Amino acid sequence: MAEGKEKGKEGDLFIPRLVTTDEYFVSGHRACMGCGEALAVRLVCKALGKNVIIVIATGCMEVVSSQLPWTSWRVPWIHTIFENVGAVVSGIESAYKARIRKGRIAPKDVKFVGFAGDGGTSDIGLQALSGAMERGHDFLYVCFDNEAYMNTGIQRSSATPYGAWTTTAPVGEKQPLGQMTWKKNMPEIAVAHRIPYVATACPSYPLDLMDKVRRGVDIEGPAYIHVLSPCPTGWRTPPNLTIEVGRLAVETGVFPLYEVIDGEYRLSLELPELKPVREYTKKQGRFRHLSDDAIERIQARVEADYARLKSKAGL
Amino acid sequence: MTRRVGLEGSFAVAEAVRMANADVIAAYPITPQTHIVERLAEMIADGELDAEFICVESEHSAMSACVGASAAGARVFTCSAGQGLELMHEVLYIPSSMRLPVVAVAANRALSAPLSIWCDHSDAMSIRDIGWIQMFAENNQQAFDLTVCAFRVAESVLFPAMVHIDGFFLSHVIEDIELPDDDAVRDFIPDYEHPFVLDPDKPVSMGCFAPPFIYAETKKAQEVAFEHTKSELMSVWDDFGRTFGRHYSPVEPYKMEDARIALLTMGSYSETAMLAVDEMREEGADVGLLRLRLWRPFPFAELRDAVKNVELVVVLDRAVSFGMGGPVCSEVRAALYQMENKNKPHVIGFIGGLGGRDIPIAGFKYMVKRAQERVKDKKEEMEETELFGVRE
Questions:
Q1: Rounded to an integer, what distance in angstroms lies between the CA atom of residue A119 and that of residue A149?
Q2: Does the interface ipTM go beyond 0.90?
Q3: What domain range includes position A238?
Q4: In chain A, whose CA is at the least distance from the CA of B203?
Q5: Which domains does chain B have, with CATH numbers?
């Protein structure tokens, strides 16, 4: 999609003093202090603007923002169940297409956006999302990844990183590692669907996040953005370190920021040298049990993955 | 102009959806529902129906897409059967709780294990407590008529509606049916506007989270509103009768005027049962037939009225509620419990036709005879429900 690619390179980007002061995800919600996900949602909504319909999966952001009789949403918003965001957004997009074509409503430019957590995306909602991407609906899907089922109390998901403590991958005498599997690479799964736009982002880099949302939503067809959302409650970090921890995830190469536009990889940040993974893990209680050995295994994996990513980007 | 045509039940349903001018169809193929989706896909490909067809990757997503489309104001349709309805199960609660008028057709099918693609009513029974209007067709004409009525009633009461047609017995059998004019059907189903659609010009939050202090109130509101769907459906059926000359009601009698014994059936076996009633009448038995057209909301008052002069009701179930007998039979007993003892008929239940097993005319005659014996022997308990025609 050449047009999208142009937009990706030249598109009107956000600059700090021109970011709108309008809020669409407003205060009064019940998110934890220092919640990286609530911040990310707020920024994404700013970038989306008001001509949008948001479908959200069951999870932290749904529970904290929509307790009857209140709502934190100033844009049309629907939640149904946990694992069907891809399908619900498909239905809404199709309804608009049909109703406009049949003259039932006046033509209008509406963006269709799905929000879900890492569980709602890479575990239970993967099938519905895959179906929607394959069918090519015109929508943006944002995964807010806090690396476990935080809403239910910090249970492991397929997006939980290797070595992290969770309540269902606990650290025990026989099993001292916590999570024994490596994080599922959800952005690569999206890329494998050959959709026009895939990106990773983090609220520690707010303008980059908002630029990507703008690009993803402007491109025709499915777009997927994977947002690492630090979670003080589940990661066992002080609330005032949310931004710093997110930044370290990027600077250590644990969570690289990149875009894949029509299959072409582009790194979002120049990182001449990665910081040691230990700088990231040592800030977080969920990693405090890790042996040097385990941290070295993570370090080796991060370096190998980063090298592979760079080579995909032609670097 | 009304046309007489030979149509499969599946194609009859597709014609109803086309005439209803549905906007969005989301469906996943499953035997014996496939001919409905195939025909609809063909209609769209040929330009006979202007709709978005979302060829989803599962029934779970089919219903989810219907929910989304309906919340965005579209007229939506899906269809499924058996395992598909079970996979849909979780999502089926959403349109009834969020008051979205999704219309669905189920080509009734047995449930695994063991695998069976053939008809019974196990799938229909598994969704009876969800808040969908559920109607049962007994022939292809009804498959068409009830689908048309489903759109009209669903959009008027803002609840989802499901029409049950028996898999293969109706879905794959060609019958002579009467198709009305497209315009007549379009006049019968007016354009509708849902009062709350997802629209950036009027933002709403749908599907919020309810703590204990308010959840029960939402359920009360839903139940009160759902009870009202029966009278609305009956007025839709009245209007349908006036317009198209075919009349429906929640409990439809056949040769019941002076009957002392009533057979009670749902779905396609009603027609076999009618033939059995004819034969028994000729042989001098005072037997009639009650066809339960409306399964949810359950027509308690209508059923009591229909059996007030009857001594024995013989109920055929096409599903097993394990540990309980037949679900239709248990509902009938519950409905009749309120009757005064002197008027209350005996109720004997049979389970038959599971997984596509045939019940011949003689089968219904056997059931009536056997039921009379069981009343005489005082064997009316639910746990003595007999599975008809099963090898020991």
A1: 6
A2: yes
A3: 2-312
A4: A76
A5: 3-244 (3.40.50.970), 251-387 (3.40.50.920)
